[in-house]
Amino acid sequence: MAETAASVPSAASPSTGVVVGESPTARGRRARIALRALQVLIALFFAIASALPKLIGHASAVESFAEIGWGSAGMYTIGFLELAGAIALLTPVLQSVSAMALSALMVGAFVVQVTVFDGEYAATPLILIVPLALIAWARRGQNAELARLLRRAAA
Fold first, then answer.
1. Contact 139/95 with Cβ under 8 angstroms?
2. Are 72 and 62 in contact (CB under 8 A)?
3. What is each CA distance from 122 to 72, 84, 109, 140, in whole angstroms?
4. Gap between the Cα atoms of 110 and 116, Å rounded
5. C-alpha span between 100 and 66 (Å, rounded)
6. How confident is the model at residue 26 (pLDDT cuts 50, 70, 90)?
7. Radius of gyration of the chain measured on its C-alpha atoms
8. For 149, what's the count of Cα atoms within 13 Å in the CB-facing half-sphere?
9. Helices (DSSP H) in 90-140: which residue ranges?
10. How far apart are CA 85 and CA 61, in angstroms?
11. Predicted pLDDT of residue 17
């Protein structure tokens, strides 16, 4: 009797580390875990490395926003948006929308970096857009659920 690839136990090739004969279910599970880990890492970055310095008024953030001309109101607003995005990135029904909103914020950050700071750190927002776009695309199915919840709340 012949066995299908899905029924054969997975075996990792010692030289490449590639899993051979992995079932689609196991592969999907690994992809979901990797995507969730990416979301947690990006959310931690936005909450701790990006929003926190703005929200506590760290000297570097104050100086940057003064140079932009936005002052403390702009600094606290951007910090709040980044923190809200980080939290929403971990909220199932908001993940895709949050990734899109944070991507838009990163486009703005890129423009500011290029126009005000002569492109000194312009690569950072561009690099962040890549995983955010992946998250937005992978979680796009949740947008229908969000729309359904919003329609029900409005009724």
1. yes
2. yes
3. 22, 23, 8, 27
4. 10
5. 27
6. confident
7. 21
8. 8
9. 95-115, 123-138
10. 19
11. 56
What is the CA angle 103-76-123, rounded to 5?
A: 35
Quote the CA–CA distance of 18 and 60 in Å, as a whole number: 44
Tokens standing for residue 111: 């423009």
Residue linked to tokens 């940057």: 64
pLDDT value of position 4? 45
Among candidate residues 110, 87, 111, the one with its CA nearest the CA of residue 99: 87
Amino acid occupying residue 34: A
Q: What's the CA gap between 95 and 104, in Å, rounded?
A: 14
pTM (two decimals) = 0.81
d(CA 21, CA 90): 32
